[in-house]
Design brief:
heterodimer, A: 429 residues, alpha+beta, nine-stranded antiparallel beta sheet, 9 helices, 31% strand
Chain lengths: 429, 294
């Protein structure tokens, strides 16, 4: 029996992908990237070598796609994982506002302001339609590209600094969510900010958050990789074929036994969350523990309504640092606003990376429920990404504490939040 | 044994160079600038701060990539595998592919064997020039390669033939680099074999298992099912058969092609049943002979 040659396996997969023609056109979605990630995850191939092979075949594929090959290649290069050691996120001041102000283009709901040494962000929700007024509360459905030109208000602080801003975020034709990013940072300790001259007094009321880092239990690398794929495939736009290709690869290289129960379990989990082959039937294996509680509440729409402002920054977890600024809940779902450095969210979605560096966004509450998140309205790339992570199922109305766990390959951050809603946001649980 | 370029017709391409349309010609394994007397001198001038010459930049790029296996990863696997570089570069110099300055004309170029060069100097092979090994300023490593592949199907094919010949020679000589490049070489062979066999049999979904065997081994193709085929071929098949466009002749699949003088060719072929071996003899005759016959 000949020795398994990982590079040859990957290159032959690339050849078949090219020959198929219809495969791999969407960055991040191609089974080709999944094959590389599977081989890297179990140490069957060097990451740099795999990255080089992906580069070649990605370019080869792009050269055969007349309409979009320059943009495809640019996109992949822009979202490469940064070389060198990233600088972890620093502390920040986050102030809840929950106020509506009138700027030059109309009313805007200001949710909170976040200050760091590097950037000032004013989180907002607003409407573009002339008749539609702004509304509190945010959409938990995936964002669509906005159809108009968003406002760019002038931002000012109490030290006399007045700067421009631009909008970063997304929305549908009517409602946009995101933040105004100041062209220069405002004073960290300012007592107020102004948007186009409309003043908002800043009162610091931040929910205490306990942050720690845990090493994940030792696990077979192939099995661990399979579960990471299941928990991240929705946010990384991974196709079912990609996960199947990863399983085939792990089996082919000898890292996974074809009869390993993890194959059936992960397929059942994927099917349960809307991926994978249809109709596993009554013979489907029992899902492991977190999935049971995750799936038990998925049809409910009884989540509390409220917001809380957080200022939690994690130490690096496998090189990735995460900051949480808000948590918002509605009857049909809940989400957090996060910053991530390096931007592994965009990296995994667009770069078709050779190593799976994505974060699985797990959470659990004090009633034993588990939750799983996926990115929405994300912007960034390279060193820093920011956006919303929407979780399912809805938050248990009886929960009083939530633990958000951004989970990397070998470590996870544990961010413990008491569910004490901001006064202005109300609670209708 | 005849040189690797025997049986490959000369190819011309045009390049916008210094505001004029210049010609490049590939013939007998070399790329030549037909409109420059002293390519080395122009390189030296450019190195001293003079204007760059697009024709010479193209020659340098050719030299950089004439043994570059990425050419085989990116290049066409066969007539049905079309690259769309012409469309992309037509967007103008700001487009992602702006390979060798803005002067390269990427429309397909006619193959010309009749026109005599106006001036014939600046041959590339064997010359030692100061800028070879470095792309032109501001050109990313991939971009000049992509530009070369955009030089019309025929010239890009000659670039692939150059790379294939260089690596076939390395394999033949037992060069360590060829062992290290085994996966790349096998993948290059697989992609071209698969495209050729599928087109020949009219089975785009045909699954193919390939074993790349040492040079000199007997080629073998064998059906192992209605939609499956196993092949044992040496990398040299690409040089002997694929580069010359001999994969399918008279409805038969060519597994080897040999010639002593580059004029008379013997093709070892298989019938559509992937069996029934037959030999086909080809002879290249000068046009004058044909007229004499007529």
């Amino acid at each position: 029996m000949s020795e398994f040659d990982s590079e040859l396996y990957l290159r032959l997969f690339g050849e078949r992908t090219l020959a198929d023609g219809s495969d791999g056109r969407r960055p991040g979605a191609s089974p080709f990237g999944s094959v590389a990630q599977a081989l890297v995850a179990v140490g069957a191939i060097d990451e740099q070598l795999a990255e080089g092979v992906l580069d070649e075949y990605h370019l080869a594929d792009a050269l055969r796609s007349p309409s979009d090959h320059p943009s495809q290649v640019r996109l992949r290069r822009r979202h490469r994982y940064p070389s060198g050691t990233p600088t972890p996120l620093g502390p920040r001041r986050v102030v809840a506002c929950n106020r509506q102000v009138q700027i030059s283009t109309g009313p805007v709901d200001v949710r909170y302001v976040s200050f760091t040494d590097e950037a000032t962000r004013v989180a907002v929700t607003f409407s573009m339609g002339a008749q539609a007024g702004p509304r509190l509360g945010r959409r938990f459905a995936p964002a669509m590209p906005p159809t108009g030109r968003p406002p760019q208000p002038t931002l000012a602080d109490d030290s006399g600094t007045s700067v421009g801003s631009h909008f970063v975020g997304g929305g549908s034709g009517e409602t946009w969510d995101g933040h105004f990013l100041a062209t220069q940072p405002l004073a960290l300790d300012t007592a107020w900010i102004e948007l186009d001259g409309e003043r908002i007094e800043l009162v610091d009321v931040v929910s205490p958050a306990d942050v720690s880092v845990e090493r994940l239990p030792e696990q077979d690398p192939a099995v661990r990789h399979l579960w990471r794929l299941v928990t991240t495939e929705r946010q990384h736009m991974t196709s079912a074929q990609s996960t199947e290709a990863a399983i085939d690869t792990l089996v082919a290289c000898g890292a996974l036994d074809p009869g390993d129960p993890a194959i059936g379990e992960t397929q059942a989990a994927r099917e349960a969350i809307g991926h994978g082959p249809m109709g596993s039937g009554p013979g489907a294996p029992q899902l492991p523990d977190p999935w049971h509680s995750l799936l038990a509440r998925r049809a409910l729409a009884d989540g509390p309504t409220g917001r809380l402002t957080v200022s939690a920054v994690t130490p690096p977890i496998d090189g990735v640092s995460v900051a949480l600024t808000t948590l918002e809940s509605a009857p049909d779902g809940w989400m957090i606003t996060a910053e991530v450095t390096p931007d592994v969210v965009a990296h995994m979605a667009f770069a078709q990376a050779a190593r799976h560096r994505g974060l699985a966004w797990w959470a659990r509450d004090d009633r034993g429920n588990h939750y799983l998140g996926e990115s929405r309205s994300w912007s960034g790339g390279g060193d820093l990404g920011t956006g919303d992570i929407a979780f399912w199922p809805t938050l248990d109305p009886q929960a009083t504490e939530l633990v958000v766990m951004p989970t990397a390959e070998t470590k996870r951050a544990v961010i413990r939040l008491p569910l004490v809603w901001d006064a202005a946001s109300g609670r209708a649980g | 044994m005849s040189p690797w370029w025997d049986g490959l017709a000369p190819v011309d391409a045009t390049v916008e160079c210094g505001g004029e349309t210049h010609r490049l010609r590939w013939a007998a394994g070399e790329l030549q600038p037909l409109d420059h007397d002293d390519a080395d001198g122009e390189r030296a001038l450019a190195a001293l701060g003079g204007a760059r010459c697009e024709c010479v930049d193209m020659l340098d790029a050719w030299e950089r990539h004439a043994r570059d296996l990425r050419v085989l990863a990116l290049g066409s696997r066969g007539p049905a595998d079309l690259l769309t570089l012409g469309d992309a570069t037509a967007r103008g110099p700001a487009a992602w592919v702006s390979p060798l300055g803005s002067g390269v004309r990427l429309a397909p170029t006619p193959v010309s064997t009749s026109g005599l060069p106006r001036r014939t100097t600046g041959r590339l092979r064997g010359s030692v020039v100061p800028l070879i090994g470095r792309p032109a300023p501001g050109i990313a490593p991939d971009e000049d390669l992509v530009g070369l592949l955009g030089l019309g199907g025929s010239l890009a094919g000659r670039l692939q033939a150059s790379v294939i010949a260089a690596w076939a020679k390395r394999i033949d000589e037992g060069d360590d680099a060829s062992a290290e490049a085994g996966p790349r070489l096998t993948a290059a062979l697989y992609g071209r074999l698969a495209a050729s066999v599928r087109a020949w049999l009219g089975q785009p979904e045909l699954a193919i298992e390939l074993e790349m065997v040492p040079a000199g081994s007997t080629p073998r193709l064998c059906r192992t099912g209605r939609d499956r085929l196993e092949a044992e071929l040496p990398f040299a098949w690409l040089e002997a058969v694929w580069s010359r466009g001999l994969t399918s002749v008279m409805g038969r699949f060519c597994v080897d092609a040999t010639s002593v003088d580059g004029r008379d060719w013997t093709l070892s072929t298989l019938g559509p049943d992937v069996d029934s071996p037959e030999t086909i003899s080809l002879r290249l005759s000068p046009a004058g002979d044909r007229r004499a016959l007529g």
